[in-house]
């Protein structure tokens, strides 16, 4: 028997045994344009914005958000459009309908196998999206349900991962003989360490939320049904900061993690990445610090979306400050 066809049959059989009980994945007031199940792949990728945050949703719930060639192309285009959008410094990637992403579409994989083709492994940007390059701007992903096989590789492409406590990660492709081909071997060791990465890749076992958070595979562990909303909250907490220095530090960290070797080379990258924009932001930041403006957001409020201060409260704060000056 063709080993590729044998893999497809085993994988289809395993999918019928997978059951998961999760609440809906949209919460905290974040609602994309639609969660309608598409009759075709025209709506397989949803794009929306919450203020300056770009929301990108995988919308193939009946296929457990597995990604075929057309959806991969749409996802690549959506992320490229986000990267070109100067009004949006950060994006949130999520899955509609209870699952983040179950990997590559099994029906299309079967068709490829019937042809004896491995074209899905050879696409320039990756089989499930632009996983074979580094995103130009930060991406936070909200993980619900199953995030497995190349779906896990898609999550590893993102800067930060917000995971629901009932979600499951894993390289389930291991048991069916499908290689990791969407950046998993390039990124996993940098995220969780070499020895742990080997164990996860070789065993192909399930990883629950508690373990994912413990080993650094997830950055936040949240209640079922809140991944998208909490991911958006995290994005808002990042977008409030001066972006030139943030992007400079992000670029240096990426270079030092993946391309530079040795402490001296890493220090050279960190120093040489400083630009005029970063120095301008630094100068403005020093002036803000010296003023100690009580109307500015406090440090403990950075983890949530900034809320505007009403005018009456501003006047009250100003009056209190004026009274303090008179008493001193």
Automatic annotation (TrEMBL):
Cross-referenced InterPro entries: ClpP/crotonase-like_dom_sf, Enoyl-CoA_hydra/iso
Pfam families, per the entry: ECH_1
CDD domains the record matches: crotonase-like
Similarity field: Belongs to the enoyl-CoA hydratase/isomerase family.
Identification of the protein by name: Probable enoyl-CoA hydratase
UniProt organism field: Musca domestica
């Amino acid at each position: 028997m063709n080993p590729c066809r044998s893999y497809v049959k085993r994988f289809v059989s395993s999918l019928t045994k997978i059951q998961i009980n999760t609440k809906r994945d949209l919460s905290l007031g974040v609602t994309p344009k639609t969660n309608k199940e598409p009759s075709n792949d025209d709506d397989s990728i949803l794009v929306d914005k919450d203020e300056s945050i770009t929301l990108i949703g995988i919308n193939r719930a009946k296929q457990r958000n597995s990604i075929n060639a057309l959806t991969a192309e749409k996802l690549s285009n959506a992320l490229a459009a986000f990267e070109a959008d100067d009004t949006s410094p950060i994006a949130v990637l999520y899955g509609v309908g209870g699952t983040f992403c179950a990997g590559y579409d099994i029906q299309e994989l079967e068709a490829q196998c019937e042809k004896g083709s491995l074209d899905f492994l050879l696409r320039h940007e990756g089989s499930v999206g632009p996983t074979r390059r580094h995103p130009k701007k930060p991406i936070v992903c909200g993980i619900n349900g199953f995030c497995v096989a190349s779906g896990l590789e898609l999550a590893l492409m993102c800067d930060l991962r917000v995971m629901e406590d009932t979600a499951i990660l894993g390289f389930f492709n291991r048991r069916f003989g499908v290689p990791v081909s969407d950046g998993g071997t390039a990124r996993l060791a940098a995220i969780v360490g070499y020895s742990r990465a080997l164990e996860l890749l070789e065993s192909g076992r399930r990883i629950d939320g508690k373990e994912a958070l413990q080993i650094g595979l997830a950055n936040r562990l949240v209640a079922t049904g809140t991944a998208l909303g909490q991911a958006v909250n995290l994005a808002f907490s990042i977008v409030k900061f001066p972006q030139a220095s943030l992007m400079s530090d992000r670029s240096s960290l990426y270079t030092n993690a993946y391309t530079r070797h040795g402490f001296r080379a890493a220090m050279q990258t960190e120093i040489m990445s400083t630009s005029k924009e970063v120095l301008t932001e630094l100068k403005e930041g020093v002036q803000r610090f010296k003023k100690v403006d009580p109307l500015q957001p406090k440090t403990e409020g950075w983890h949530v979306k900034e809320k505007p201060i009403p005018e009456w409260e501003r006047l009250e704060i100003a009056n209190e400050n004026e009274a303090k000056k008179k008493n001193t």
